[in-house]
């Protein structure tokens, strides 16, 4: 089953792309109008490359000149500000680290909305608070533009291979236009509802993932201490009602599965810091909508403590190790 | 996939059994030695009937005379005490509500171990603390008998239909002998390891189930409040890393699935009280082995509060309702 | 010991104030420059009255005309917008329900900062996110004005009696000027540090209060179920290391103390909704500063669930009742 | 205020006691009947010495011969088994590590109850599950003896100085007889109610203490990260409703108070392991009485994780350090 989260053993992105890879596609550029791209980080850069590869002229910008240079070398036109991108393109993607960046890029003094043309399609793939997505959509609407949120699941590898999953929120009539671009960069594009629901879907999935992972870690640890063989316990859970993605696909107890972070000292995978960030969004969103999330909230606290106790850069399944009594104690 | 937990829409146990149902089997009784059965409650009674149906002479006892009478009417021999059962049978099953009952039935003044014959096979299907199972095994060993724990998954319906799942802990050499009897009463028999590991497996599964259920309820509720359609959200979770048994097989949000308790005002299914009892065992076991179970422990507290707030007899998926703001507030 | 939280049995605010009450003070008005006041709700209205009573001319505004009318009747000058207040007064207090209101009143199109005079002292007594206080302070500084946060402890009764406690954050040099006004409305004024620390102090205190209250409720309930007399248990805790404000001053178990909400079916006091709001601020603040607050976070979730289960308007010590098994179960 | 918990800076127990210290008291022994003492560990040994010092002949036993030797040297009569103690004394104190030891010493093959004389007063100062205390009381009653539970607060220092606090449960008519002995070893003796309530009081106090300590640690950490000075924050809390023993007497943030473990790298004081043990008793007791303790339960899990993460032997206030992000991260 296709899984929306970064998968550590997915095929490597392969050799570095060179300009010649884009020869064929640039030939067909004449028939495609340019696409703007703001935010050329670890995720944005391979996403923009996949647009180029699919024959779209790309007008790009980023605060780091090196990121721009790399994309320029393979055919993108680089400009100085998000506002200039908006002058030259009527379809724009943004991929930014967090809410304040999104607010700046859209509504700041050199922002997209200062120069946006009527009818422009704006797609934000950042993972942010859905309330900010809705604010941006309202601001865009005032300028006659359309804003959609389209956060992704899948890590850098999936971005390079155009295997991302996009969860899209926004006006349904514009979904087809968005889908045309997103399918160049992803394997799954799911329409979720009005603006903000793409973010909501991602936040919800990752919260339940976090709960399932800690729950599986606790359960595997308890079972082992009660004398059960870890592989047998996993097998029993997976044929029973305890089954979940963390038990059957990404088991956190070393020795149960191969090709997962727990088989590799919790290297790679989905870092505890990133999970803590997503749970922070879930927490804020729940607080602001007055929704009780007792387990989600405790999961957030646990990953937050782990970040302070040396697990920040390990895969989030290292919670198994965090909870486990050390050998010899 | 076969699921170990009581399933509310499973086929009804069918018509009441009468003596003639057992004619064929009683004819073959000559070739089978008697099996003892202590504890003829909601679960024990249909289990004992399935032994009779399979041709085993049954020597039974229970503290409630009515329960004995019913079994006597269809061919069982009824005696007064567990000790007497032990005098007449060298394979004995016990199915009792909780640890103190098990201790009494085995080691009490009229208990099995007062009269047990050397070599007797004792199988306890009660759900209790694995530490008590180990104590009983040690006490049995002193008398030259063999004790195994074999708690079940599946409710009264599964017991009647001989569709239970048994998780068996005990000496491996005796497993075949136990399996012969247990397959008369269940569809799955899983060997888990030394004495107590059957209990451990059941406790572990139900703890992870409880965590997954509350997590799913929180997630569905949060998503709905963020504007997602419940069916769509469930679909997204189930194709993603948030997937778990509670999201894809027993979804707690009304309107997402049919044939589950959430579609029927949380009637039937697996009661909150029973889940709270199993989580109490998980909690005690974890405390006594010094194992941290932060989410398991919080899940326990949540179901415990629910028992006090009017959800005791509803299906445990009613945690969705418990967490949800009431209409009109 | 003076306590910062609303105290249910504090002396009633007494008879309604009439214009003659202000005769003496208005006579001395000539020597005092006007003070602006924005937000004449349950708390703001008695606070503004105390300024009048102390001889300060008050320039007031509120979105509800009735609130303005009442204050006008006793001598305040009413204007239409926060901006107009800022034109007429160089010391302004604001008392608003939440962050968005504060942002609107300060930075909105008719906001204070649109018309503020250089050197104006702005004091915000709303309880909001300290990050918003810092934003307002930065925006005020650009206009040459000074912003301080000064949230209060104490309810409507304390506001009427000028017995509030103010926790003040802001530039230390301006503290004396702020203190002069705040002492007209409160019994304690505590300087906490730079802008935002007043909010921080209030949030911290209320988070620890919430934890102590739930902890006391759990402890009293457990002790009672273990056979202890509630009064005796409270006495033992209060002479021991379990002692806290919730055990010795505001005990949540009925029958232990008089004059507290638990003695009056949890009427009056500090509502569960308000506590949930303050814990939401603590939660957001902790999330945004990446600070783990496991118990604070769980306390938040518990009060949030209580709001949905019918305890919204009861005193927050009703958590004792929420956790308790009902009679007859 | 006298505090029931071990206090790290209490006066040292002073010079080692020698036989001559007991000369005066032994002279008066003729008029006092012997007292039995079982369990001469870190706590039991100084307690037994205080009985000797007060002129009571002591009949003692312990599984470790060295412990017996030390007491023998200063005048106690040493015997081999608890049963022999019961033959020679009609007032017996026991001070043992945990429930299984208590069960063995009272009901084992060489146990007290095998030889106890009618009318003997049995006082158990171990900290154990109150249900075990009740079982022992019932077993004693069958033999015509009286059992009381009298767990202590205060550590080894308080035991040496006869400054312990005893929380006593048992038949009220026997309380005076118990008090006569206990006042030789403690400064406070509190009657709590029927058998088991002494344990209940201790468990309840320590649970609330644990909650208050973690809550204080979270609050101090959050406040510091929000820019508050730790000493000022403590002062504000202590004059407000956040006040508790952990904030005003044993503050966990370094630099706030002197003479507490937080001022000494969390050395000394009350170890995390011991707190986790007491919370385990609270947890088991709550589970067995079906009492929800959400915060108590989470506090238990946090101290349990700390034990596995290197905090086992630090004072329990080191939870402040556990939750805090390390410098430089």
TrEMBL record, chains A, B, C, D:
It comes from the Eukaryota. Signal peptide: none annotated. Keywords: Branched-chain amino acid catabolism, Mitochondrion, NAD, Oxidoreductase, Transit peptide. Pfam families: NAD_binding_11 (PF14833), NAD_binding_2 (PF03446). Pathway: Amino-acid degradation; L-valine degradation. It catalyses: 3-hydroxy-2-methylpropanoate + NAD(+) = 2-methyl-3-oxopropanoate + NADH + H(+). This is 3-hydroxyisobutyrate dehydrogenase. It comes from Cyclopterus lumpus (Lumpsucker).
């Amino acid at each position: 089953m296709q899984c929306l989260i970064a998968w550590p053993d997915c095929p490597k992105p392969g050799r570095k792309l060179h300009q010649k890879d884009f020869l064929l596609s640039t030939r067909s550029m004449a028939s495609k109008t340019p696409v703007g791209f703001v935010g050329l980080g670890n995720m944005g850069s391979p996403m923009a490359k996949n647009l180029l590869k699919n024959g779209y002229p790309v007008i790009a910008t980023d605060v780091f000149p090196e990121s721009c240079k790399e994309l320029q070398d393979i055919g993108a036109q680089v400009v100085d500000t998000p506002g200039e991108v908006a002058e030259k393109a009527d379809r724009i993607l943004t991929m930014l680290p967090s809410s304040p960046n999104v607010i700046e890029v859209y509504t700041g003094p050199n922002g997209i909305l200062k120069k946006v043309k009527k009818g422009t399609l704006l797609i934000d793939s950042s993972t942010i608070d859905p309330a900010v997505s809705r604010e941006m959509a309202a601001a865009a609407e005032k300028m006659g533009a359309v804003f959609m949120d389209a956060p992704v699941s899948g890590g850098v590898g999936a971005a390079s291979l155009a295997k991302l999953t996009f969860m899209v929120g926004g006006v349904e009539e514009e979904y087809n236009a968005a889908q045309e671009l997103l399918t160049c960069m992803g394997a799954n594009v799911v329409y979720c509802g009005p603006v903000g629901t793409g973010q909501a879907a991602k936040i919800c999935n990752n919260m339940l993932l976090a709960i399932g992972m800690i729950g599986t870690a606790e359960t595997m640890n308890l079972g082992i201490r009660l004398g059960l063989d870890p592989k047998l316990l996993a097998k029993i859970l997976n044929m029973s009602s305890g089954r979940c993605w963390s038990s059957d696909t990404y088991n956190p107890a070393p020795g149960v599965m191969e090709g997962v972070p727990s088989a590799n000292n919790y290297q790679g995978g989905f870092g505890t810091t990133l999970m803590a960030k997503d749970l922070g969004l879930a927490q804020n969103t729940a607080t602001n909508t007055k929704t009780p999330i007792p387990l989600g909230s405790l999961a957030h606290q646990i990953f937050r403590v782990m970040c302070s106790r040396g697990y920040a850069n390990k895969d989030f399944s290292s919670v198994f190790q965090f909870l486990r009594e050390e050998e010899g104690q």
